[in-house]
């Protein structure tokens, strides 16, 4: 057991759902998508994640239904294995060890015992399509090294390869040419488009390919937005193509409908185009899909399509071009300015989402809970356009208040700043804009913090800016005789010798405010706003600032740009200790005295956990990431862990998450977090109504024992475990009914039949 | 290469007529094109798309249909109700026959070439028997008499809006029983003729689809739309292992700005022409065997003959239009400037004369004498000669009457250098020499055509000393006549490609011949053999870029003081060949611009080669040397032509 307790860095959710085309099950009930090292199975009706197929030890790069048994799924991964899954029960059936890094997977019904994979040999950019013979054997792990070469010099992404006419030929595109390999004749035809530098042909690059299911017709997408339909390609001379042109930007993906009568295409315009009968004049559109369409897939039954988008979203679309479900993961494509925050109410991770939005992401269920539009302006996607950026955000007063700062700077002198304060509305369960402050400062706001002291009766917010001031904002009555409306006003403006304010921080009890002015740290009394003392280390500008907590609340920590970490004693007003450490991230744990600091060097990023009271770190993990870590955050655990090892005790009450420059969300864990946090295969949703307007829904029940205990505790009205979250039903739904949801059925029962219904649902899910 | 003062003439207000019909002849690989003014042109597709013959238009003879029959016979029919057959040897109209059904809108020959079918304004369809010499009326199908087997009703709906009328602009009947129709609603429809049902419908344009042409193999066809787009349809197999085939729209081509009124389908190319006057030949890459200049897109706008003649002495330009001639006096300047400067005019160009023809016929050819005092032109039936006299600013014109009976129609007219003789190539194949006197003339001699040939001469050249006359027909070799003793001197060996321009050099009496395959020969008339330079260049071969030019050389002239120079031009370049310099090989740069002044003479000499090419003036219709230091260049910018055409159908352009 002790060996198992080794802490390692694991990727935790937030992985791309749009990395590869999603795959529908044969009955269109489920949709599969690769997600990091896992394959996720979602229900197309409820958008819920039904299973997570885990077993690969590296990025999963391709999934395909088993053409000979549509209840099975093949997946391939960078770890060099092909795995066969029973997706209904989420069981791994077989593992085929190929040995090479596999980049894409294709299955063909005709080739019964072999699949096609993309591998690369020798040169890094040259890929080969090979067929892998999967030997029949009863054992779980089978070596299948029997590779036969099909096509060389292809592209890595499966978008560039398509099998046509039930596996008679395979079409592959790269740069300016299309290669078609005919399995029967064993010949390759190659068709090249003009690639000359002149304006007309410069964007002729192929971007994707799809094959007609019934006819000998290959559709290719191009960088200039054209779609070409190739025919007669079995003849090197007589080949011909038709052009369809609607997209003004690159065609990202193409898919034929099951019958081949219509062709779907999508791109940066975020519009799904359906071309009927391959005619240019006969097309239908599904516009306003929100973000670039990266992939399109079609269900084998033909009733559903789905599009994967660049904002980590999958939209399930009905045959008549109506979006029916949205599966939204962590949005990753924008710059993170706000850093990682934890919403105190939902414990959700909060960070920049879509442009101008703040996303609330559930670490437990790996899905986006909520998307708050901060900028509240139409987003125009155009290259080179300067957008309004959400730069700062902070939660205050246990999640009752949210402060956000947005800015837009077109020229050096023209800065547009706006601060917004949002109040949590219990009725609507969301944030409502309370106060909007135009130009709260003359220059960029560098820091934003709420006073989170328990005793403070009046919410207080401090902003620090490059204009040399810090401002204190307090909540006051807003000139209403009923004193019901409240608003924020500026209470105090402080400055220190015209230095730029770079950071601000409240002490745990809220009595002191520390504001750093370039190299100098100033301490202010939060009652009277008097300057109490200053610290200066002459070691460069202060980059991070934070107070110690609990037993260490007499310490103040500051990290400077020159790579010095200082700890000042507030009682003696002297430097307690300092260390040479190039700190990039410094985060205090809210549940303990611990502070995590991540340093960066050319070798990689290192993690140090220490208590302010002593300079010796509690825990050091070298090289947690090869690239720079940009943000980190401690997330309080719902159920405390019990690490016995002293080095890991800092992880008992909180978990540490961090985000690297390439936007991978990582954490430190002894086991894979998905295993622990995500709903298991026996998922039970329970609900009941104990007061007329509320319904409690529990999720994430790990096993039957826990479910039973929840049941019992509910009936006795015992306090609920934190795994149960409270949701208010929308006013229109019947209040006196309960919802029992199991897998994909939702039942409503009256409270009288409560127990029976719950038992029924439970039993069904147990499979009894 | 000396520097020249160039008269850059842009006041030649020539607008070609729109193309109405095209007909492709598979046997001889020739293309007949008829224009809205009734002109019919024959292009030889094997000879680098050279326009080798043309039949002048006629005001009342607007062609609506053109077809080839029995390989070599060309028929046209038009709004005057006549069916016309053309004599392709003598270049005149063989006969015209009234069909007695009002204006004729359509005509088709049977595949065997024995019958001709015309559709008339009164609704009747008339069948003619094609006999060796003529056509003979055989039968009349009246629209009332027989009931139709099937009536195919075309849907009038067009993108949900019903138009008042839907006109079928063209049909094609394939041997498998499929009928293809194109209509004014922008549809191409496939019908089953056995059942009269619609099989497939392609909506391809927002405007009318006006023309259709099917290939001989019936595996592809081409349609032209009023938006200027030409669509190619191909019959492709649905899957490689099934025999089922389907018609698929493949490539659109947008080479026209206006209506595509006529299309043709040769085995290797799609040919289209329309209101915007261009004839576009778009080769099908999959059908082209070798990648040579046949595989390039061609756009033919200007006739491959000379419309302009020039009087060097008086600095006059004679412009030939369809129904009139214009005489212009070139402007002059006193200013001087550096190389490349534009000089201000001290005296503007002056429009001296506007000479309208009598009668409905188009002008075939015209010429002004070098001294500027004679103008001659010819229509299909009459020959006109005028005497010009200049009295200070006034100009008086006097027609020379009593032309001899044999001078009825000329294909080419040429004055000798001293303006004392007039050479006329008549359409009977004979050459007449006429001595011009003050106000009258005298017929000197007629060279009869070689026995057994009736081919007309259409290019003439006379030596500056007036002793030699060279004449060329459309295919046979060049004949050189001695004017002094009125005898055939010699015949230049026949070459496979037609002659596009002829000229005899002063002093040396070398005949320079340009052919449509871009070869240039120099033939010494006194020695009766090719010159040494010509042999050298034939041995070494022309530069590949020179051979890839797609317009023929239409004019050759010489520099009086520099006997080693040959000046020639086509529509896109002007070239001076300096025979004293080394010939370029395929590695050297053919189009080298003038070397920079600051480079040393050594480099300049090293990069210099015999071909000095200028591409400043385009499209260039005429270029000649006025005197040692002055050139005249007549350009006709395409934008000016488009500006004079009716406005095209407006199309929404993305991003505007």
UniProtKB/TrEMBL annotation, chain A:
Q: Where are the WD repeats?
A: 53-95
Q: Which residues form the WD repeat-containing protein 75 second beta-propeller domain?
A: 340-663
GO annotation, cellular component aspect: small-subunit processome
Q: Does the keyword Transcription regulation apply?
A: yes
GO function term, MF aspect, one: RNA binding
**Gene3D superfamilies per the record?**
YVTN repeat-like/Quinoprotein amine dehydrogenase
GO biological process, alphabetically ordered: positive regulation of transcription by RNA polymerase I; rRNA processing
Transmembrane segment boundaries: none
Tell me which UniProt keywords the record has, alphabetically: Isopeptide bond, Nucleus, Phosphoprotein, Repeat, Ribosome biogenesis, rRNA processing, Transcription, Transcription regulation, Ubl conjugation, WD repeat
Q: What is the annotated localization of this protein?
A: Nucleus, Nucleolus
InterPro entries this protein is in? Beta-prop_WDR75_2nd, Quinoprotein_ADH-like_sf, WD40/YVTN_repeat-like_dom_sf, WD40_repeat_dom_sf, WD40_rpt, WDR75
- Primary localisation category: nucleus
Q: What is known about its subunit structure?
A: Component of the proposed t-UTP subcomplex of the ribosomal small subunit (SSU) processome. SSU processome is composed of more than 70 proteins and the RNA chaperone small nucleolar RNA (snoRNA) U3.
- What is the recorded function of this protein according to its Swiss-Prot or TrEMBL entry? Ribosome biogenesis factor. Part of the small subunit (SSU) processome, first precursor of the small eukaryotic ribosomal subunit. During the assembly of the SSU processome in the nucleolus, many ribosome biogenesis factors, an RNA chaperone and ribosomal proteins associate with the nascent pre-rRNA and work in concert to generate RNA folding, modifications, rearrangements and cleavage as well as targeted degradation of pre-ribosomal RNA by the RNA exosome. Involved in nucleolar processing of pre-18S ribosomal RNA. Required for optimal pre-ribosomal RNA transcription by RNA polymerase I.
Tell me the protein's name.
WD repeat-containing protein 75
User: What is the species listed in this Swiss-Prot or TrEMBL entry?
Assistant: Equus caballus (Horse)
Q: Which gene encodes it?
A: WDR75
TrEMBL record, chain B:
One example of a Gene Ontology biological process annotation = maturation of SSU-rRNA from tricistronic rRNA transcript (SSU-rRNA, 5.8S rRNA, LSU-rRNA)
What is one cellular component GO term in this UniProt entry?
90S preribosome
A single Pfam family it belongs to is WD40
Database matches in InterPro entries: Quinoprotein_ADH-like_sf (IPR011047), UTP4 (IPR046351), WD40/YVTN_repeat-like_dom_sf (IPR015943), WD40_rpt (IPR001680)
User: SUPFAM superfamilies in the record, alphabetically?
Assistant: Quinoprotein alcohol dehydrogenase-like
The highest taxon in the source lineage is Eukaryota
Per its record, how is this protein called by name? UTP4 small subunit processome component
- Organism annotation: Equus caballus
